[in-house]
Design goal:
Length: about 325
């Protein structure tokens, strides 16, 4: 059912002229910013935030803090479900790819794929499957097979010839830390990623990404106020260059300041023992309009769309393929 030729990759620039396509998952951070009366101002401001943060972190040989800029492209991955039909392509995943522009040397440097992570199947798992499974249960439980199909689909894509043809390194995905866990500062300090935090028990999201084949580490970069969760394959500290890591930090920290200002735009730095909270009141707002309430509602709607157009009609075939892939 799913083979080397099942994945179709398309990309479009994420710039001030960006308009979400019909296939874009509208809960995606970048799609939310690109709608409404303030769309172009939003886009300019977030790109400015990313570039300023990049130059802040890449400060060597950069006296005016304007040497670099980051070009972003939205990578959309379609899954060709039924090879007997040319039109039956399900919008599986969207990620961001970065390119670093070095204006001093007039050079374009490849950044990292991943960054933001968007998935219709993840919407289904978290917004449809999980609530339905726990309906009328006195305690919260996770279904025994939760995340396995999604994880196998992701691993299949990352190891496909389509991915290898377009990207020379495995992806790094950077997300917010969980508000249900406590993170403890360590003595480990990386020159770019910053101070490392650890926690004793992984979050549901951490376990979900583990099924995608990814490990997680938590770092609070220089002049950040809270740790970020970095999901990766291999060795995060050795497999990627300094500029590649900075491209991910600058991009995703900007989105998190907009989406979760209570955590990432707080007016105080995370302490040694830190539990993030969306009820924290001492924070600053950016000048960027973001509809968080709409985002939550759309996640459920898009999860139901996935159930009706992907999970239900192809359930038996997906289950058989996933079991075979795991084996």
């Amino acid at each position: 059912m799913i083979t080397e030729s099942s994945f179709q990759i398309k990309s479009i620039p994420f710039d001030e002229n960006y308009h979400p396509s019909n296939d874009t998952r509208l809960t995606t951070n970048f799609a939310n910013l690109a709608r409404g009366d303030n769309r172009q101002e939003n886009l300019r401001n977030v790109l400015r935030m990313i570039n300023n943060r990049f130059n802040d972190l890449a400060h060597w040989d950069n006296p005016k803090a304007n040497r670099y800029s980051v070009a972003l492209e939205i990578v959309s991955v379609g899954l060709h479900i039924d090879h007997d039909s040319t039109n039956n392509i399900f919008p599986l995943i969207e990620i961001l790819n970065t390119t670093i522009i070095d204006q001093k040397n007039n050079q374009q440097i490849k950044g990292l794929a991943g960054n933001n992570f968007s998935s219709y199947v993840r919407d289904y798992d978290f917004s449809v499957l999980l609530p339905n499974y726990n309906k009328n249960k006195p305690e919260f439980h996770v279904p025994p097979d939760f995340g396995y199909l999604h994880g196998n689909l992701f691993k299949s894509f990352v190891h496909s010839s389509a991915y290898k043809k377009n990207f020379n390194k495995l992806p790094v995905i950077c997300l917010s830390v969980s508000t249900n866990k406590t993170y403890c500062r360590t003595d480990n300090h990386h020159p770019v990623l910053g101070v490392e935090y650890r926690q004793q028990e992984h979050s549901l999201t951490d376990h979900y990404f583990e099924k995608m084949g990814m490990q997680v580490r938590y770092f609070m970069p220089y002049r950040s106020v809270a740790p970020l969760a970095f999901y990766f394959f291999g060795d995060l500290l050795s497999d990627y260059t300094t500029l590649e890591l900075i491209s991910t930090i600058s991009t995703m920290e900007a989105f998190q300041k907009i989406y979760r200002p209570e955590i990432y735009n707080a007016n105080s730095v995370a302490p040694q023992s830190y539990q993030p909270s969306l009820s924290h009141q001492d924070y600053s707002l950016t000048r960027i309009v973001y509809d968080r309430e709409e985002r939550s509602k759309l996640a459920t709607a898009q999860g139901k769309y996935t159930e009706e157009s992907f999970i239900k009609p192809y359930h038996a075939r997906l289950e058989q393929w996933s079991a075979s892939y795991s084996a």
